[in-house]
Q: What sequence folds into this?
């Protein structure tokens, strides 16, 4: 089935099984590799991306759901001229170790600081349930707070 | 020496290779570098048993460093980056002697076809320490060669040539490394130059951001699953969820009819669906009807009983004084306790998959492995081709933790590729990663101790029952039967470190029906949990402070004991041990020595809403020279989180012959909710660097156990901790 949607602000058209998870469409049909496969059951969050500005775990989201919508992956978070506060903070706090879960965490975190511009530790802990095995959690919390501060400063 | 001179394909002896070890400068090979003994030893270990010199004889003579035309240096790392930040530390060491800014060093993994891979694999927290001298020596040699070539070209004295920031100069003459490399054909190899003293280090000792940071944040870092090939097909194998199960009957006809399926492979030991996309392969494999022949439906109780002190083959690993007879004849009260650790999964975020392309009896493999050399050997025998026809490239690893030294699907992927005549991506599902994996083995420990009349520890013994972690992989059943038990890995850390006059340790090797293997920190995890939990119980029952008791015990000990004391003294200060006790908060400590790195943690816990909450962790590590303190902080933080996870949540169980956890919902890990206040302190009480990836994991679980004992007056002696168990 032919499905049209927009990815990182560019229109695309794919001809795939409408039940195919958006994850595989993004990775294998559109060749955007930042979004990762982790568990296949929407539990670990490595595949987190945005559809019409909402956070989704794309390994369990049929592509047909994205029809006519705007999909954003990590590749679309920053613009050519402006690094996203989340990515800037992730670099400043030196968050990643193996790095595999980080795109999903950053996508979840980008949405969080949009919803809660000045999140507390508790806001972060209760809103982001992604999994990391290297133990980057302490830095993720610091980086999200730093990103929120960067975002605030850029708005002033 | 020209490339041609190296192109003969005669068998290569190791000694000959060492004499001819080459550095690549501008594409021409420069041989003759010998190095001093640590470098020779490293290379000897690395090369042994690898048929390695194939890369030289096949005219692909890459060594560690190559000068690129943009005047940067390509470093082909023999060690694999899996998150532990090894490539940054190694690049820092190289930069010291290459006299080039760190940012001009590009690092990639050596592959079996290009550069030196490490036949021992990447693990055991030994990468930086084993390469501390070799990397600098080879870098210094290369710098001197560049200087010598410049002196000759300019007709000036070598002593007048300086190398700085990638530029050579003498008087008013200057040339970049790239320029001299491009214009030199005859290289001269100097004797191994003297290395810079530590006092002259530019990078070592200062925090440097990870060199893979940018790509891991921007999403451009590539893992196995991200690699592509023209005409790539996707495969999923059928795996038996039962331990040692085999196919009794199978019907793949429905699977073959599924859309986008290219082929269903049905061989005795390989059943797989190949499709044009991953989704189709996954859907089709679910349509296979299969009945399993299960030799025995193992239950958890049986697995625990198998691993019990007194069963299996006993190996004494420590016997000082006469601990056993003192303990069995003691009139004084003998303290005795038993501890258990469960089976555990690595649960790394990236499942251990392979991209394979087999064509004309040559195999090109991409696999995020800790041991490319091992994969190369396995594939050569699986495909019946020579090792030099198998190229194994390891991209970044999405976590390793020991998992990526073990059971893998590279041979399956290669066989599928050969059958369908196309490149194949075979990425296990998470269910397969959990159920068809290799596990940290469950262990059982019995500790006994008796005090003398002066209140000192008179005798102590430790018995550890454990399955093998590494011996069978290294040398098969024969090796294990020769050495009796896996004291190298599973028994690592089993011996009593405290200089008690009478101390004795035995390891009981037991057989289990599941594949057991290494897991971050290997035996240190289980043994530190048992021994240090026992020490905390001894302190509790004799009403001693757990730090003071340890300091007293360590008095008069060896160099390791002295470094342990220093770590504990600093820990006491940093953890604010003298401060007034907080109500409702328990605290304790634990310490370990993991291959000369000392790590100690002080931990505070409380019970919140009926659950264990780790409030604060102060960890002091002494890993000798701290090459990249920022990187060490990351490793310690990660080990603390993994330790909390293992102590509070993680357990693999077996029911009806099956691994019970199929996905993360059945194998919960620590999350953001579990982040305590963390303080990391680095000491440098040794003149060389030791490992840091694994050691800081050791003290976490026993310090939590001790803190719970302090809080509740009841000891928990099995992991993961369950409050209703004590």
A:
């Amino acid at each position: 089935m032919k499905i049209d949607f927009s990815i990182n602000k560019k229109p695309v058209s794919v001809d795939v099984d409408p039940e195919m998870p958006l994850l595989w469409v993004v990775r294998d049909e559109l060749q955007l590799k930042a979004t990762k496969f982790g568990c296949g059951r929407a539990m670990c969050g490595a595949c987190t991306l945005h559809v019409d500005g909402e956070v989704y775990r794309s390994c369990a989201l049929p592509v047909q759901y994205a029809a006519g919508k705007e999909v954003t992956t990590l590749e679309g978070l920053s613009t050519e001229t402006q690094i996203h506060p989340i990515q800037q903070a992730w670099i400043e706090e030196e968050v990643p170790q193996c790095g595999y879960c980080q795109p999903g965490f950053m996508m979840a975190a980008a949405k969080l600081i949009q919803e809660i511009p000045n999140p507390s530790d508790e806001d972060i802990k209760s809103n982001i349930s992604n999994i990391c095995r290297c133990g980057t959690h302490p830095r993720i919390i610091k980086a999200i707070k730093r990103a929120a501060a960067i975002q605030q400063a850029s708005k002033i | 020496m020209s490339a041609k001179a190296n192109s003969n394909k005669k068998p290569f002896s190791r000694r000959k290779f060492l004499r001819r070890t080459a550095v690549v400068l501008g594409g021409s090979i420069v041989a003759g570098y010998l190095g001093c003994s640590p470098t020779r030893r490293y290379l000897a270990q690395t090369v042994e048993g690898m048929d390695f010199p194939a890369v030289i004889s096949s005219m692909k003579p890459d060594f560690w460093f190559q000068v690129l035309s943009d005047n940067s240096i390509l470093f082909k790392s023999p060690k694999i980056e899996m998150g532990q930040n090894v490539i940054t530390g190694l690049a820092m060491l190289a930069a010291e002697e290459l006299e080039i800014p760190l940012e001009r060093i590009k690092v990639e993994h050596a592959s079996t076809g290009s550069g030196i891979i490490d036949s021992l694999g990447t693990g055991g927290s030994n990468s930086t320490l084993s390469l501390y001298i070799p990397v600098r020596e080879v870098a210094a040699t290369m710098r001197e060669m560049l200087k010598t070539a410049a002196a000759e070209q300019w007709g000036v004295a070598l002593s007048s040539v300086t190398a700085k920031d990638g530029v050579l100069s003498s008087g008013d003459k200057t040339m970049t490394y790239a320029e001299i490399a491009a214009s030199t054909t005859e290289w001269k190899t100097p004797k191994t130059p003297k290395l810079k003293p530590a006092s002259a280090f530019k990078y070592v000792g200062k925090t440097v951001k990870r060199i893979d940071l940018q790509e891991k944040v921007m999403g451009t870092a590539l893992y196995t699953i991200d690699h592509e090939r023209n005409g790539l097909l996707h495969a999923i194998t059928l795996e038996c969820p039962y331990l040692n199960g085999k196919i009794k009957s199978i019907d793949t006809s429905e699977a073959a009819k599924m859309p986008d399926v290219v082929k269903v492979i049905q061989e005795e030991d390989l059943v797989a669906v190949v499709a044009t996309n991953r989704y189709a392969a996954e859907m089709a494999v679910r349509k296979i009807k299969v009945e399993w022949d299960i030799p025995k439906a193992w239950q958890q109780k049986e697995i625990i009983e198998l691993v019990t002190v007194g069963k299996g083959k006993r190996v004494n690993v420590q016997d000082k004084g006469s601990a056993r007879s003192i303990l069995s004849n003691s009139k004084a009260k003998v303290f005795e306790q038993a501890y258990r650790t469960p089976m555990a999964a690595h649960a790394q975020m990236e499942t251990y998959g392979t991209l394979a392309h087999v064509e004309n009896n040559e195999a090109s493999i991409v696999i995020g492995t800790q041991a490319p050399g091992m994969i190369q050997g396995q594939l050569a025998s699986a495909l019946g081709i020579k090792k030099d026809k198998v190229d194994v490239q390891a991209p970044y690893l999405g976590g390793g933790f020991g998992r990526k030294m073990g059971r893998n699907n590279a041979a399956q992927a290669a066989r599928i590729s050969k059958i369908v005549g196309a490149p194949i991506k075979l990425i296990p599902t998470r269910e397969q990663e959990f159920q068809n994996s290799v596990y940290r083995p469950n262990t059982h420990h019995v500790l006994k101790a008796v005090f003398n009349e002066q209140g000192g520890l008179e005798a102590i013994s430790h018995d550890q029952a454990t399955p093998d972690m590494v011996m069978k992989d290294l040398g098969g059943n024969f090796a294990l039967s020769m050495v009796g038990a896996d004291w190298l890995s599973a028994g690592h850390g089993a011996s009593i470190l405290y200089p008690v006059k009478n101390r004795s340790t035995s390891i009981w090797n037991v057989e289990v029906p599941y594949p057991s293997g290494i897991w971050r920190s290997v035996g240190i995890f289980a043994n530190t949990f048992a021994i240090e939990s026992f020490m905390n119980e001894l302190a509790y029952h004799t009403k001693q402070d757990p730090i003071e008791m340890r300091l007293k015990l360590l008095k008069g000990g060896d160099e390791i004991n002295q470094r342990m004391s220093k770590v504990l003294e600093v820990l006491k200060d940093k953890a604010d041990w003298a401060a007034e006790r907080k109500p409702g908060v328990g605290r304790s400590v634990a310490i370990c020595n993991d291959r000369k790195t000392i790590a100690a943690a002080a931990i505070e816990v409380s019970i919140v809403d009926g659950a264990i909450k780790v409030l604060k962790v102060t960890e002091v590590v002494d890993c000798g020279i701290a090459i990249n303190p920022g990187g060490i902080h990351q490793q310690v933080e990660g080990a603390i989180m993994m330790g909390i996870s293992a102590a509070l949540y993680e357990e693999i169980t077996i029911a009806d012959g099956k691994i019970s956890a199929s996905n993360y919902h059945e194998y919960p890990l620590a999350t953001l909710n579990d982040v305590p206040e963390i303080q990391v302190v680095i000491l440098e009480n040794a003149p060389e660097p030791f490992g840091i990836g694994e050691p800081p994991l050791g003290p976490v679980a026993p310090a939590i156990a001790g803190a719970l004992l302090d809080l509740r007056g009841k000891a928990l002696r099995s992991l993961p901790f369950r409050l209703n168990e004590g």
